[in-house]
């Protein structure tokens, strides 16, 4: 009797498994869309395809805010040209953050998961001291080249006004340095992302979690 019950249970399990729908196509399609947005630096668009917290796990949550905080001195009373230059730098960072993205053909229908290999830009692999050193070099050169103008600014607006004039004067060159030499010195780390998907109330597939491993 026990053998019969066991046999029936096995048959039922196999039948249910065989009848379970395979979601490889929609999950793969959604994974491709997500990775395309990541590759293009469209992190806001990518986060819309994920559950809350996933953006933080893969370090795309506060890129703009972090850069604004790091370079806040150059945003105070900055010209539109300087603000736009910093926005361009943000986009350069976001587009460079992930490269060599390749979706693997390893879909798991029981987990609704699929993985991808990529390289992640480690923005902390270079010291902020490099930026401070460059800013000091540019400031010294700017002051030497614009002494008379800066004296006039000082007489009119005081020390704060003069500092702002120097900051504004070097901003374009500093941001150019950030987008070129500084960015080029950052190192990449190879990663594997295992993305698990879930259907929401509207039957749309979203990324529930991303597990990150090296290599």
Describe the structure in your own words:
Keywords: Signal. The protein is α+β, with helices and mostly antiparallel strands and 215 residues long. It folds into two domains: 23-59 and 98-124 and 187-215, Nuclear Transport Factor 2, Chain: A, CATH 3.10.450; 61-96 and 127-185, no CATH class. It contains eight helices and four strands. Helix 6 (80-96) packs parallel to helix 8 and helix 7 (129-145) runs antiparallel to helix 8. The radius of gyration is 26 Å and the shape is elongated. The model has no long low-confidence stretch (mean pLDDT 89).
Task: Please tag this protein with its features.
Nuclear Transport Factor 2, Chain: A; 2 domains; 215 residues; alpha+beta; four-stranded antiparallel sheet; 8 helices; 57% helix; single chain
Summarize the structure.
Helices cover 57% and strands 18% of the residues. It is α+β, with helices and mostly antiparallel strands and 215 residues long.
Proportion in β-strands? 15-25%
Helix content: 55-70%
Morphology: elongated
Largest sheet: 4 strands, antiparallel
Q: Count the E strands.
A: 4
Average predicted confidence as pLDDT: 89
- Helix-strand string: HHHHHHEEHHEE
Task: Count structural domains.
Answer: 2
**Count of helical regions:** 8
Low-confidence stretches: none
The neighbouring-strand order within the major sheet is 1-2-3-4
Alpha-beta classification:
alpha+beta
- Radius of gyration (CA) equals 26 Å
Span between N and C termini? 51 Å
